[in-house]
Amino acid sequence: MLELRPNCESCDKDLPPESTEACICTYECTFCSNCVSNLLMNVCPNCGGGFSPRPIRPKKERRVGVSLLHQPASMSRVNTKYTAAEITDFSNAVKDIKPENR
């Protein structure tokens, strides 16, 4: 089950389950679209992979037992352990390599 983290791991912006600004990497690291574009340069500072828009979990139960009510978003905030300088150095080193080739 995809973990819907409640915040951007960089700027700590709230990213509720219905947010269209949430981006995730393959390890579910979660950042806002602004940080992905302007700070991270589409490079996850944790794994080096790229980002995709985070899917929206339906609020309304259209199938029995399948909805945000039954599989709620996480309440645990996560923040990156890397400094802005470390993120910039890491991102600059791999940003020109397509995510599928990293």
UniProtKB/TrEMBL annotation:
InterPro entries: DUF1272 (IPR010696). This is Urease-associated protein. It comes from Arenicella xantha.
